[in-house]
Design a protein that fits this description.
single chain, seven-stranded mixed beta sheet, globular, alpha/beta, Spore Coat Polysaccharide Biosynthesis Protein SpsA, Chain A, disordered C terminus
Length: 261
């Protein structure tokens, strides 16, 4: 009987999603770095690129979805997660197809979720200041990252080294629970989904990943980074108000109401 149960037990399905925008020159290298045997499918969502991203993805035989109009980074992720869930994925891994993150470490992102230790895994770029700056991260971006991460840790009661990575993995339960379709279509989507997940008490872990900075790697400029930082702070303040009961938000877990007789 026990052997029959083990035989009928379904192997967890792992799907990689790539939110792509003008990634024709780096998509193939990123894809080929994903270890064989770890992932069941790779999905590319093209956000109305101006280059040959779609052709490259199709030549690689990847399931590809194309936005006729640019929806933004957050809007791209919404399609990524929605389409991955529709395939029956148990773990969804987001990898930027710009070759900035080391996709060879995909298994390190997936294993702690499959083992039941975490619900979300983040690939942290921050181990030491020297390493990050030597890798090419601009000084202003590094200190902005440090400030926002410290603020998020304080508000959420966590002790993560970084919240702003584009290499992350989710158990399907997280994406079913958080209302990610309500989140921003802009870059702050990354923070809204983590703050919402924290409000649902999902366990967030991390593993260090090397990162590459070069002209083809996607990166937002200083002014967009400032807007992103302010939007992140606004999200955290909204969470504080929600948690205190002063102003409820549908982006976070509903506060339980104590019943009275």
């Amino acid at each position: 009987m026990q052997k029959a149960k083990e035989k009928n037990k379904r192997k967890p399905r792992v799907v990689v999603v790539m939110p792509a925008y003008n990634a024709a020159s780096t998509l193939k290298k990123t894809y080929h770095d994903i270890p064989s045997g770890v992932v069941d499918e790779v999905i590319v969502v093209d956000d109305s690129s101006h280059d040959d991203t779609v052709k490259v993805a199709q030549r690689l035989g990847l399931r590809t979805f194309v936005h006729p109009n640019n929806l933004g980074y957050g809007g791209n992720q919404k399609t990524c997660y929605w389409e991955a869930l529709k395939t029956g994925a148990d773990v969804i891994v987001m990898i930027h197809p710009d070759y900035q993150y080391d996709a060879t470490l995909t298994e390190e992102m997936v294993r702690p979720i499959l083992n039941g230790r975490f619900d979300i895994m983040l690939g942290s770029r921050i181990r030491t200041r020297q390493e990050v700056l030597a890798g090419g991260m601009p000084v202003w971006k590094y200190f902005g990252n440090r400030f926002l991460t410290a603020f998020e840790n304080m508000v959420l009661g966590l002790n993560l080294s970084e919240y702003h990575t584009g290499f992350r993995a989710f158990h399907r339960d997280v994406l079913h629970a958080v209302p990610f379709q309500r989140f921003s279509n802009d870059f702050v989507f990354d923070q809204e989904i983590l703050v919402s997940a924290a409000s649902h008490n999902f366990r967030i872990g991390e593993t260090p990943v090397p990162v590459r900075y070069f002209p083809e790697a996607s990166s937002i400029n200083f002014s967009r980074s400032v807007r992103y930082g302010l939007a992140t702070i606004k999200t955290l303040l909204s969470f504080v108000l929600h948690r205190s009961g002063l102003r409820q938000s549908k982006k976070f877990k509903p506060r339980s109401v104590q019943k009275t007789r």
